[in-house]
Specification:
The structure holds two protein chains of two kinds.
Chain A (H helix, E strand, L loop, with lengths): L1 H33 L17 H15 L4 H12 L14 H25 L1
Helix pairs in contact in A: 1-2
Chain B lengths: L1 H25 L12 E2 L4 E4 L5 E3 L9 E7 L4 H14 L4 E8 L3 H11 L5 E5 L3 H6 L6 E5 L4 E7 L4 H11 L1
Parallel strand pairs in B: 4-5, 5-6
Antiparallel strand pairs in B: 1-8, 2-3, 2-6, 4-7, 7-8
Classes of the chains: A mainly alpha, B alpha+beta.
Chain lengths: 122, 173
């Protein structure tokens, strides 16, 4: 009887850990899908879209997570198939320098103008 | 002098903005992935349309010739339109055509082939569309040209037309 109880507790713990890992995978899957653009209904993420393309991507992402690919590896896979544009957050490369650095430059220029004006007022 | 400089800077900025927006008018607002990038052939396992058995991609692209992978479905109207051109292409001895039946009903797909003819040396079933993703496709029909080194060298989004057919013939010549 005691052995049966221990067995049941172990079984329960195992199923709980399995549930927890599924939950973690679902969270990862949703994060990825929200960051992938649907190429059929452009403007919607794959997560929000119901198109054939989106449902295939959902299956592929699921498959890649089960193959234990990391989030970055999955993005890289999709980028290789469809280009940088398919990911909402593009990587820093020669095509995206302006996109990433322009806001920083504008921020610095704005700061410099404000500082100059403040010194001028003093 | 200072006001003049400000005016020039503002003017340059406005001209810059104008050029950017003017150029943007010509660009389509929908994104199409690049079609000329050389890519490796994906490694996959797929169900054979006629034999109903699974086959490895390495056992499909075995011949020393060019290959076409054409994604089609019986419910796709443009596929019907391009089919006679694929039939014409299948007569060419230096190219093999592989069909990828995309998210289709098997009986409807068989009817489609029986009605319009079979240009493919092999047809693979892509029931859930994941195989098309492995190729980098996002719709149907799409056609991929594979060279003798088993590299995808060109991708044609949408139905094949006379112009594309001539382009393919020129490449494989």
């Amino acid at each position: 009887m005691k052995l049966l109880k221990i067995f049941l507790i172990i079984l329960l713990l195992m199923s709980f850990s399995q549930l927890k890992s599924n939950e973690k995978n679902d969270e990862l899957k949703n994060n990825i899908l929200k960051n992938v653009r649907c190429l059929i209904c452009q403007g919607q993420s794959v997560y929000d879209s119901e198109s054939d393309f989106a449902s295939s991507i959902k299956l592929i992402v699921d498959k890649k997570i089960n193959e234990e690919m990391s989030e970055d590896q999955i993005y890289e896979f999709l980028r290789e198939k469809y280009g940088d544009w398919v990911i909402y957050e593009p990587k820093l490369n020669k095509n995206t320098y302006v996109l990433w650095l322009l806001p920083l430059l504008l921020f610095l220029a704005g700061g410099a103008i404000i500082r100059k004006n403040l010194i001028f007022k003093d | 002098m200072k006001n003049k400089l400000k005016l020039i800077v503002t003017l340059i900025f406005l001209i810059f903005c104008f050029i950017i927006f003017y150029k943007g008018l010509d660009k389509p607002n929908t994104y199409t992935p690049k079609t000329n990038i050389e890519k490796n052939l994906p490694i996959f396992k797929a169900k054979d349309f006629s034999l109903n058995t699974y086959i490895d991609s390495v056992d499909i692209f075995t011949e020393d010739s060019y290959y076409i992978v054409n994604i089609w479905a019986s419910w796709c109207v443009p596929c019907r339109k391009e089919h006679p051109l694929l039939m014409e292409l299948s007569n060419n001895q230096s190219i093999r055509l592989i069909g990828l039946n995309y998210r289709d009903n098997l009986n409807n797909a068989k009817k489609f082939i029986n009605e319009l003819g079979n240009p493919y040396t092999k047809i693979l079933i892509d029931k859930d569309g994941t195989l098309a993703v492995e190729f980098g496709a996002y719709g149907v029909p799409e056609t991929f040209l594979i060279d003798k080194h088993k590299k995808i060298i060109k991708k044609f989004v949408g139905p094949i037309n006379k112009k594309i057919l001539e382009e393919i013939k020129l490449i494989i010549k």
